[in-house]
Amino acid sequence: MQTNNHQIVDYDLVLDRKFGKEGTTERIKAEEDALSFYSGQILLNARKEAKVTQTELASVGAFYRIINALGMRVEVVKPIY
Length: 81
What we know:
By secondary structure, the chain is mostly helical. The protein has helices at about 10-20, 25-50, 55-60, 60-70; strands spanning about 5, 5-10.
């Protein structure tokens, strides 16, 4: 791994060494985990910005289970002003 003052020069090489080549089971899982974490951070920040408690947000889970059971989907987007 080539670095310069702790700055990564070849990020793909770092990912290859840590999680395996692109397309491997380990790499796919790592990418899914990273996306899940990133998505969670976006939701956490949005919840705090909207001043919604975790308890209030938890009640939304039932809504999503109903939507899923009906074979429907909900798209969540943040409007750009």
